[in-house]
Amino acid sequence: MSQAASQAIKLRVVVLISGSGSNLQALIDGVDSGDLPIEIAAVISNRPEVMGLTRASKAGIPTLVLDHKNFASREAFDIELMRTIDAYTPGLVVLAGFMRILTPAFTEHYLGRMLNIHPSLLPKFQGLHTHQRAIDAGETHHGVSVHFVTAELDGGPVIVQARVPVLPTDDAGLLAKRVQKQEHVIYPLAVKWFAEGKLKMTNGKTELNGELLAENGYQIEANDI
Asked: So which residues are the catalytic ones?
């Protein structure tokens, strides 16, 4: 296959960020290594001057800032964000630390083609401060989930989870670092599955390689990675 033909079949992806972009970097690294058959068409941030924009620029990826503070309502912001994303004709939208609650109209528009990563073993600990909450709850294991995005916050069907043990010596910071290490493994994996046509959302459930997954998705122990 020619290089032009190989590039032509790559999935176009738009990545949304709000901060440092460490998961964005994991995707960029996957593209650079040849492991991820995608083209990151653009990186869009709702906050100016964040590290994730610098990461994208260094990789030669177009960047845009759409500051939510400049919009009168959540709905107005989401409408403009949709218009901006769609100009790049992506096959997949990836939320990589995008700290916005999205409107139902937005999530419906990208239903089945938008992924998010959340630092807990969903459905446990939806929302914020997940690492401290896991410690406070006496959990023996914690982790991270990649899921399809629906109108329910952190509630879409789970694709893959990586589990890490909660150690007696853990505080929220130490636990967060171990979880983040797994984020950088399973997010590119889920994006790769989608790009290869192995992953889709079917009737509100995750389908991988033609089989419906259980509620917790594909399970990976940290020791397996």
From this structure: 118
